[in-house]
Amino acid sequence: MQQHTIARATTPLAVGGVSLEEMPTAGDVSWVAPPPAPDGEHSLWVDFRLDLTKLANVNTVDGTAFYNGYVIMYWTDTRLIGWEGELPQDLWGPKLICGNGKDMDISPFAFVLANRSTGRLKRAYVYTVRQPA
């Protein structure tokens, strides 16, 4: 299946009100900070795909529905090239926020190093949105 890059995450100057310089580090690496952008780029590319597994109870008058699916995101973190073992516990990863879900469950599904030689990561969430009562 061919994947397309359709979203871009930018590197923030602060996370949770804490500047990147003040964040905890593991050695010389700040894992909670986003990875560096590729050479010549100002932003980190995040590829994502949405796998819709169920769509039901669609009400076009009220604008409600039930859907269930996966959001799977891929990005490269050059700090992890050649990494062995478990990922750092506080490793940064993108998050997708759906602002219009009235009754939404978001569950982590996977967060893995997909390619050790390039530092390519994969993060997946299961999203379930229910029609309001």
Task: Tell me what the structure shows.
This protein has one domain: Acetylcholine Binding Protein, Chain: A (Distorted Sandwich). It has a 4-stranded antiparallel β-sheet, with no helix packed on it. With 133 residues, the chain is an all-beta fold. The termini are far apart.
Low-confidence stretches: 1-26
* SS element count, helices: 0
In one word, what is the shape?
A: elongated
Helix content: under 10%
Radius of gyration: 17 Å
| Biggest sheet overview | 4 strands, antiparallel
Q: Architecture, CATH level 2?
A: Distorted Sandwich
Strand segment count? 8
Proportion in β-strands:
35-45%
Mean pLDDT: 77
Q: Supply the helix-strand structural class.
A: mainly beta
Elements, N to C (H/E): EEEEEEEE
List the strand order in the largest sheet: 5-6-8-7
CATH class: Mainly Beta
- Oligomeric state of this protein: single chain
CATH superfamily: Neurotransmitter-gated ion-channel ligand-binding domain
Number of domains: 1
Through-space gap between termini? 37 Å
Remind me, CATH topology? Acetylcholine Binding Protein, Chain: A
Keywords:
single chain; four-stranded antiparallel beta sheet; disordered N terminus; mainly beta; 133 residues
Would you spell out the secondary-structure blueprint of this structure?
Blueprint: E1 8-9, E2 14-15, E3 18-19, E4 44-45, E5 47-59, E6 64-76, E7 103-115, E8 120-130
Antiparallel strand pairs: 1-4, 2-3, 5-6, 6-8, 7-8
